[in-house]
Amino acid sequence: MPLLIVKGDITKMKVDAIVNAANNSLLGGGGVDGMIHRAAGPGLLRECRTLGGCETGCSKLTGAYDLPCRYVIHTVGPVWHGGSCGEREKLASCYRTALELAEEHGCETVAFPLISSGVYGYPKDKALRVATEAVAGYLGGHDSDMTVYIMSYDGKIETERRLKQGISEYISEKFLTSRREGFVLPETPAEETADEEDECELPDVLGLFRPSEAVQAREDAGQKRRRWSEKKAAAAEMPSYQSVNAADGELEKRLSELDESFSEMLLRKIDERGMTDAQCYKRANISRKLFSKIRGDSTYRPSKPTALAFAVALELSLPETRELLMKAGFALSHSSKFDVIVEYFIVTGNYDVFAINEALFLYDQALLGM
Q: Domain boundary at 128, 152, 176, which?
């Protein structure tokens, strides 16, 4: 693990092996197949001529020649005929057989195109779902720390329409509302640019408020400024640094009472769920190497995508997710599209990290895991 969805040109990937979406002849063609043959040079075609073709759903391996990888794994995907002719099974077989060859040749990093989603007509959202399920299933069933990339050349992958609509509505409700509120109620008024008695200037919010809302917003902003002034006055009456520093070891006492760290809470949650370490980090789309680092260091502070990946793997509720994030020094915010999308999946009970990553990819956000 992990499995990552990325945009880019597969012929530029510096990995151990790239996978070619080939035709049955293995002698080159259009799309990704043509790109790989052109980038590899004539040596690739000469070797492919010795292979005797390849059946749909199967894979064969060659050298990479002028490509920056070590191997090219050629696999033949199915032509889309509406989904009733065994296309899904054949497409999943492409990923499994390619990964078997990669593992057999000691590959630690492999990059796939979205097989059959070009001229073969397989719908991209369905092709991506088969790809993620097949790769995750293979890696989950093998003692492997392989990293797999699924490449989207132009990034134009649509998710299932009902899911996309639900995510969009949730973003509109949480993300856009938060941004609107953020315009009206700034956290810290800029004392350098306005006196306490000055009327608060409202920015142009591009029609987000009706007239009545603008009046209320102005009143709220005035109250916010008055509260800010009160806080400034209270701060002026606080004890000096010297008096705080001499406060009978209160700071040392508080530091000695620190509760469990992120790592400690994570390991406790894994035990409470009755999961093994491997089950947890694979479901989180986390590499074994990173998990070992977290387990071995009680003070380890992960990135936010890593912390959220573990929350998803453990199927934590939203309050539990917030608690785990807090241990790593983070919080969920409705002003972050990344946070809102992950929150949507948690509140709807969908803990499939690969489905979440598909949605994050669709909205150009960072992915969960590492």
A: 152
